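Response regulator transcription factor: structure, please.
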Amino acid sequence: MRVLLVEDDPVVARGTTVLLRSNTMAVDVAATGEEALEVAALYDYDVILVDLGLPDIEGYEVIRQLRAHGSTTPVLILSGLARPQAKVRGLGLGADDFVTKPFDRAELLARIQAVVRRNCGFSHPTLEAGPLSLTLGSRELLVGGVPVRLTGREYAIMELLLLRRGAVLTKEAIMSHLYGGLDEPEGKIIDVFICKLRKKLARFGAGEMIGTVWGRGYVLREHPLPAAPALHDPAGSPVHVA
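Here you go.
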């Protein structure tokens, strides 16, 4: 999951970034409203966290301009303002949720997951495709009901593939999702992660669900590919097609 954090307080920004990255989220930080609007226009984010008290323009104005330019990215307000009027105004301008500072770490993570699920058309904390089932709360992948152990990076890739199943994801998009532009290794590392994921899924007959679109990237299919049919020679012996 890729997050844009719009926060001018360096202490809050640093602490929130550490929290999100420790939960396998890639985080970009913007310290001003203008910077946030510029970055949001250049990159795709799964969610944007906006502080209201920015040094140049109000967080409200950031939200208004995002929506005016057609952005449908979920926006979650992080603010020390607890009065109902602040929440009503923010939600009225197009924010999806409002979390009051200081916030509980677990609650913030749950709110982020909730707005992302709603934006992707999911009303429950489980992403599914064919035999695959990914539970966001417990961060558990099941294949045909059997749990599959994943590393943090593998989980992040599976989450992204399931959230955007059917869409081709470039290596650059996956890299950005994993590392957020910071200390990125060579792009071939994505091939390594995908290879390992396919091997783990292949044990359950689902390895081919992650398809390669040559020259473009990877895509998660809705269902495993059917097994190749066996042909028969004139003598009746089966001939398997590789």
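Notes: Residues 128 and 134 are 6 Å apart (CA to CA).
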